[in-house]
Specification:
19% strand, 12 helices, 371 residues, elongated, alpha/beta, five-stranded mixed β-sheet, single chain, binds iron/sulfur cluster
Length: 371
């Protein structure tokens, strides 16, 4: 009867050129990667490597380190060599650190042309040295450090200004035959940021690094990033993402990973589906969901676990889950694929779920399923 059909998948990925950031491909058909940035002084090699190890364990695929001083530049060779994931050197102000980072074997260098005086004069040399070393460059334009000429032209950091700045810098590299580039055009306003990336996506084929800059504390930053990245990624725009939070960088990686999993751009790991609770609930669903999440965290299998507040609707509502619990009368009905397999006292729910999850995980291991 003319009911419009709704596509079951997101838009096709934008066609972008593929670049190689160390061992991680970015752009083309490479999966969208998650990156973060260390908060340590880069010159403190031990602390920086420790934080990189924590980030790597949390699923971070590329890490960026700030290089504001010569001491930081001096630390790069050891950090680049010992990091388990590709290291990008983040350079503002000083072109000489760009050369130091390339020499140090960093997987890529991020430059913010708006912050580097006489950057245009240095492009030829950077293009030559980076080209010879096979080191890609991220041109990272930020609303807060836009080229004064563009600020004067547009009055403020509009999407058009951000895009013009990025493409202008790209053109300087292109003049020297250098195209090993990815771009970011960050803004703290998701609406401006989304529009900037849309325009940029339409005007070049460089891979795009998505970011909402100064996104804020964890709650606000998570929402801003999820909304902005969600809008762009669902249109096929974005090749690597960095969630910026005023929180430990491991949190950024968790949020970034969840965004990709939510959009089906990465196979889901452990997923807790808990009911919102309602007047029928016979258990504290929020507390139980937290306990179950804590108990199952770290399981490396794509497991969907349902925590439901009542036995009336619980198993039926959670039929799609691999495993779940529905509570009522001080007991928990444990179900697998919607079928009740055991009934246990409320105090045993968490351990029984962990037990059942282990069994399913073992079976998945045997079947070769990994997250
Ligand atoms: Fe309400 Fe039960 Fe549904 Fe939870 S599972 S929302 S308690 S009806």
């Amino acid at each position: 009867l003319g009911i419009p059909s709704v596509p079951a998948k997101l838009a096709d990925r934008r066609v972008s050129r593929k670049i190689q950031v160390g061992s991680v491909a970015v752009g083309g058909d490479a999966p969208v990667s998650v990156q973060s940035m260390t908060t340590t002084r880069t010159s403190d090699i031990g602390a920086t490597l420790q934080q990189i190890a924590e980030l790597t364990a949390s699923g971070c695929q590329i890490v960026r380190v700030a290089v504001p001083t010569q001491d930081d530049a001096d630390a790069l060779p050891v950090i680049a060599r010992k990091s388990g994931i590709p290291v990008i050197a983040d350079i503002h102000f000083q072109p000489k650190y760009v050369f130091a980072a390339i020499d140090a074997g960093c997987a890529a260098v991020r430059v913010n042309p708006g912050n580097i005086k006489k950057f245009d004069d240095k492009v030829a040399e950077i293009a030559r040295v980076a080209g010879e070393a096979g080191t890609p460059i991220r041109i990272g334009v930020n609303a807060g450090s836009l080229d004064p000429r563009l600020l004067a032209k547009y009055g403020r950091a509009t999407p058009e200004a951000l895009v013009e700045s990025a493409l202008w810098e790209c053109s300087l590299f292109e003049e020297h035959g250098f195209r090993d580039i990815k771009i970011s055009v960050k803004h703290n306003d998701p609406v401006i940021m989304v529009n900037a990336y849309r325009q940029l996506a339409a005007r070049c084929d460089y891979p795009l690094h998505l970011g909402v800059t100064e996104a804020g504390p964890a709650f606000q930053g998570t929402i801003k990033s999820a909304v902005a990245f969600g809008a762009l990624l669902s249109e096929g725009i974005g090749d690597t993402i960095r969630v910026s939070l005023s929180a430990p960088p491991v949190e950024e990686v968790k949020v970034g990973t969840q965004i990709l999993e939510s959009l089906g751009l990465r196979q889901r790991g452990l997923e807790i589906v808990s009911c919102p609770s309602c007047g029928r609930a016979q258990v504290d669903v929020y507390k139980l969901a937290e306990e179950v999440t804590e108990g199952l965290t770290g399981m490396d299998v794509p497991l969907r676990v349902a925590v439901m507040g009542c036995v009336v609707n619980g198993p039926g509502e959670a039929r799609e889950a691999d495993l779940g619990v529905a509570s009522g009368n001080g007991k928990g009905q444990i179900f697998v694929k919607g079928e009740v397999v055991r009934t246990v006292p409320e105090s045993k729910i968490v351990e029984t779920l962990i037990d059942e999850a282990m069994k399913i995980a073992e079976q998945m291991e045997k079947d070769g399923v990994h997250s």
